[in-house]
Every structure is written in C-alpha cells, then in structure tokens.
Design a protein that fits this description.
There is one protein chain. By secondary structure, the chain is mainly α. Helix content is 78%, strand content 0%. It has 22 helices and no strands. It has helices at 34-53, 55-66, 70-86, 88-98, 100-118, 124-153, 158-166, 168-187, 189-200, 202-208, 215-232, 240-245, 252-278, 283-310, 320-349, 353-358, 361-380, 387-404, 411-424, 431-439, 444-473, 477-514. α2 (55-66) crosses α3 (70-86), α6 crosses α21 and α18 (387-404) runs antiparallel to α22. It is a multi-pass membrane protein.
Length: 515
C-alpha cells in the first residue's frame, strides 16, 4: 500500500463524487505494461544519473587537457548535474503540452548531441555550453518523464516500483565508470565522449516505451485511490470550504477551458463542412487550419495547467506542506553529493589510500544505496507502514551520519558510516511517492519538477560551498557540520507543517460548532 494524504496531515478531498462508482481495474495499473515503464525508467537512471556519477573520470582528463584550475573545471560536472534537476519546472510545461513520451525522445536526442559536441571541445568554457547546458537540459527532459510515468502506472506498489527504477543510478555508477575509464584509456576522452553520445541515443528508445495512459485509465486510477483513502480516513471529516482554504487544486477552470476548446473545434468542423459543399480545393487548407487549431488548443491547455499549478489560484505553493517539502529539498541533496566529491580527499588526508584503493568508500555508498532503495520501497508498501514515516526516519538517519562522519578517522569507521549513508539515502525512491500523496497524480509532473529543481540548486552549489569552507578552515569537518545543520533545518520544516495542517481544520470546525 502507500501513505495516504491523511498520514501526513493533509487532505485534498478530490473526486469525492465518484467514490461509490464501481469500476473494473485496468490490467496495466500495477501490472502488464507498467513493468515495461519500470524497465524504461531503470535504463534512464543508468544512462543519465549513472553517467553523471562517473564524471570524475572525465574531470581528470579535462584537467590534464586544458590546464585549468580544479574549481573552474569542476563546474562542468556541476552544471550538468545541476541543470538536469533545475530545469524540472520548465520540463513540466513540455509534459503538459506534449506528453512524457515526446518530451523524453526530444531529450534523448538533445543529451546525445551534447555528448557528441563536447568531443570537439577546445576549452573548458566550450564544455560549459555543450556538456553543462545542452546535455544537462536533455537529461532533464528524459529524467522527469521517467519518474512521472512510474507514478502514473502504479497505485499499490508505487514505492517498490520507484525503488526498482531508481536503483539504475547505482548500477549505472559502476557500469559507466568502468566504461568511461576503459574508453579513455584505449581511445582517449574525445572518442569516449563521442561513443557515450551514441549510447545515449538509447534514451529515445526508453522514451518510446513510455506509452501514455488514456484519460479513462487515469480516471479509474483516481477512483481506486479515492476509495482507498476513504477507508483510511473515516475518522476525518473536513468541510469542502475548509479543504479549499488549505490549498486544494480546483477543477472548475479546467472544465471551462475544455468547454471553450470544444466550441473552437466545433466551429472549425462546421467551417470544414461548409468548405466541402463550396469547393473541394479548399479542403486541404481547412484541414491544415483544423490541425493548427488543435495544436493551438493543446498548447493553450498545457500552458494553462502549468501556469495555474505554479502561479494561478490553484497554485501548488498554496499547499504549505509542499512548500516545506521544497525547503527541505534545498538542503537535502547536497548532503548526499558532498561525500562523493570530498571523500577521496579525506581518505588521502587520513593516510587511508591503500585501503580505499581496495574497496573505495564511494563504492560502498553506491552499492548499499541500491539495496536501500529497494528495501525502503518494500517497507513503505506494507499495509501497516506509513511512507511518510519511513521517509522521515531515513532522513534522520542520513543527517546523523553526515554529522558524525568527520569524527571517524579509521577506514572501518568511515566504511560503516558510508554504508549507513548509502542505505538511508535510499529514501530518494520515496520522493515521487510522497510528492504524489501531497498534490495528486494529476499535478505530479509539475510538483516533482519543483522538487528536483530545488535538489538541482543544492547539487549545484553544495560541493563548491563545502570546498570554500575548506579553503577557509583547512578542514572538511565544518563542511559536513554546516551541511548537516542546514539539512536538519529542512527536516524540522517537514515536521512542523503537517502538525499545523492537522490543527487548523479542527480549530475551525470547533468554532463553527460553537456558532
């Protein structure tokens, strides 16, 4: 099962009118083609996130080739990782207009183009544009649809499905590191990037597998989900007015928009019939006009949904729990990235290079991270377990490890802490599930786009900030302490807001009862 919105103290009350309607479950929900979606998302994580975690191999080649400072050269990798996540909200607009399949295919072409053009780089600044920006945007256009499609196809096993698909990051880190290292040694880094660009074209195949669900299938999923939530929330009774005042996403504007669209298409069809009776030669122009009109309506509808989600009366930002989730995301991801960037230097300072060469600490994080995602996903799907509680416990474990890591000065101690970091960071597979519980499946693309955008900002500035702290103090200890404390602030926001959401409706109901 999954954590309902009541588990996190927030009730949206959507689709209440159709809860009693008997339905026939779609075989593709939680089964059938849904597992092909998991496979597609798994391959996307290997080709995108795995490749980005293996950029240390190319970073060494760029340092030797261009003779630039380590800080300047490191921005190539940081831009690629950061932009992949930062462009999430804008990719949500593409998904609203074109759908996940088209967006992912275009992104696959753009990502491959970025890799191939980077093979001809003459300086680091050229790589900023080709690899950092071009490949980064392409990666973002594939990554977000891969996450959204899993959320659409799964209901009862969402946490497990997201966990299985995101394990591709760990597998990709091993595969792409070995591949890039071999290609750079045998063929040089330029040919390696060219070949990697050709491999990245497989992202288009992954996008083609993202077959969209029909509107009927989505409506059936909403009904099933509403019935499940009703059984979980019999003790809760909030008025419709109270729910709307706390940030519910309205449906009336969309209905009006659809009615207007039907009128436009109806008028076009009427003109086409008149054209048939008047002249057959004008049919081509009328059909072209109808096609353009349909495309215009699709774009307008997608933009209206995207705009209303971010800035309209139904804005996602009226959901205060979701805003707290954004604040958490601004601090969380850097705590996971910083160990990957700075652990090799810490190992060198502690004279542990010989042990680390046998079994690198970053490899321990990556390996255990795979198991963490799957195990946490299985636990979250248990009927008696709340996904929200599992998510919070994993965060508390991770922030504790970040704060204690500087205290470990032996390889065994660092290995244990790194293993805990890898396992607890498996909560990444729960992020789409928690996001969907907050805003619903319909707004998952836009909402998760905002979350990964905040993660991108964290990934972009977190490691450079940690390096800046080291330049001042000549120690990495304060880098981990500051990152851990900021992370704790984000967790506190997650704890406070759900409590406020639970209290406010009850107070209002009491006042109304007294009146």
């Amino acid at each position: 099962m999954y954590a309902s919105r009541e588990d996190i103290g927030y009730d949206f009350g959507d689709d209440s009118k159709v809860r009693r309607k008997p339905i026939k479950p779609n075989p593709n929900i939680d089964g059938g083609w849904a597992w092909m979606i998991v496979l597609s998302s798994f391959l996307v994580h290997i080709l995108i996130m795995g490749s980005q975690m293996a950029l240390g191999i190319l970073n060494m080649e760029w340092l030797e080739e261009f003779n630039q400072s380590r800080g300047l050269t490191a921005w190539v990798s940081s831009l690629s990782m950061g932009i992949t996540l930062i462009v999430g909200p804008f990719i949500g607009l593409f998904i609203s207009m074109c759908g996940c399949r088209t967006t992912a295919i275009i992104g696959g072409i753009l990502n491959a183009l970025g890799w191939i053009l980077s093979a001809y780089a003459s300086n680091v600044h050229y790589l900023f544009l080709t690899f950092g920006v071009t490949a980064g945007i392409g990666s973002g256009m594939v990554y977000l649809p891969a996450v959204v499609m899993v959320g659409q196809y799964f209901q009862k096993r969402r946490a497990l499905a997201q966990g299985l698909s995101t394990t591709g990051t760990g597998f990709g880190a091993f595969l792409m590191t070995a591949l890039l290292k071999y290609l750079c040694t045998e063929l040089g880094w330029r040919n390696a990037m060219f070949i990697q660009g050709a491999i990245s074209l497989n992202l288009c195949v992954c996008g083609a597998l993202m077959r969209p669900l029909s509107p009927k299938d989505l409506r059936e999923k909403y009904v099933v989900r509403s019935d499940s939530e009703e059984n979980r929330a019999k003790a809760l009774s909030h008025s419709t007015e109270t729910i709307k005042s706390n940030g519910v996403l309205g449906e009336e504007p969309e209905k009006k928009e659809e009615a207007g669209n039907e009128e436009v298409l109806g008028s076009v069809q009427h003109v086409e019939i008149g054209g048939k009776s008047a002249s057959g030669r004008s049919m081509y122009g009328l059909r072209l006009f109808k096609t353009v009109s349909q495309m215009t309506i699709t774009v307008r509808k997608g933009f209206a949904l995207w705009y209303s989600s971010y800035f309209g009366a139904a804005s996602l930002f009226t959901n205060r729990v979701f805003v707290a989730f954004i604040i958490w995301a601004l601090f969380a991801y850097s705590s996971f990235v910083i160990p990957f960037i700075h652990l090799p230097e810490i190992v060198k300072q502690y004279n542990l290079s010989r042990q680390d060469n046998v079994f690198p600490l970053t490899s321990i994080i990556a390996i255990v991270h795979i198991f963490g995602k799957v195990i946490l996903g299985i636990i979250s799907d248990l009927p008696c377990i709340s996904t929200w509680n599992v998510f919070l416990m994993a965060n508390f474990t991770l922030v504790t490890c970040i704060l204690t890591l500087p205290l470990m000065q032996t390889y065994i101690g660092l290995a244990v802490v790194c293993a805990l970091i890898g396992f607890s960071s498996g909560y990444f597979s729960l992020m789409p599930v928690v996001t969907e519980d907050l805003v619903g499946t319909k707004h998952l693309a836009n909402a998760y786009g905002i979350i990964i955008c905040a993660n991108g900002i964290s990934a972009l500035f977190g490691p450079p900030f940690a390096g800046w702290i080291y330049d001042i103090t000549q120690k990495y200890d304060f880098s981990f302490y500051i990152a851990g404390l900021l992370y704790m602030v984000g967790i506190i926001f997650l704890l406070i807001q759900p409590c406020i959401q639970k209290i406010q409706p009850r107070e209002k109901s009491t006042e109304e009862a007294q009146v």
